[in-house]
Amino acid sequence: MSEENSEQKKPQGFSFKGWSDFVNGIKKGFENFQKNLEEQTRKNLEKWEENKEKASKFFKKIKEDWEAKVQKWKEEIEKAQLENKQAWEEATEKIRQDWEKWQEQTRKDWQDGVKAWNRGMVKNAYLFLIIMIPILIVLFVIAYILNMILPRVPGV
To answer: What per-residue confidence (pLDDT) applies to 12?
Structure first.
């Protein structure tokens, strides 16, 4: 009997049936929307976790690559600095050796020049004496002879 009462209490009409179908349609649509939203949210959370792991792996890989590049650059810079330092030391050593060689060569050339000058001076002085001694002897002999002859000449 309660079923009959409930059926009897439901108004039967075209407009009420349309309204009821409209409300039921909205209700079913809302439930369907809610169900789809929950399912989509669940899927998004799953994808979020997947993407979170992918993003974490991506950034970890980027970080490792960056650190590897930085380490490589650091090694290259250290190698270049070491090579530059060695090249600098070699260049300064070569310059120092060239300077010392130049000084030694200049000193040797100076000593050779002084020796040559001294030899030339001694040789020239010796040659001067060798040439001048006979001339001086001849001049002294001529002066002696003239001194001997001239005082004997009358009127002089």
So the answer is: 56
Please tell me the distance from the alpha carbon of residue 119 to that of residue 73, in angstroms, as a whole number: 67
Look at residue 8 and tell me whether its pLDDT is greater than 60.
no
Q: Which amino acid is at 9?
A: K
**Global model pTM greater than 0.85:** no
Cα angle value 88/94/98 (rounded, 5°): 145
Which of 107, 48, 55 has its CA nearest to residue 115?
107
**Measured distance CA(95)–CA(101) in Å, rounded:** 10
Q: Cα separation of 77 and 63, whole Å?
A: 21
CA dihedral 117, 119, 124, 127 (to 10 degrees): -170
- Give domain limits for the chain: 18-123
pLDDT tens digit string along 129-146?
888 888 989 999 999 988
Our CA angle for 98, 104, 106, nearest 5°, is 100
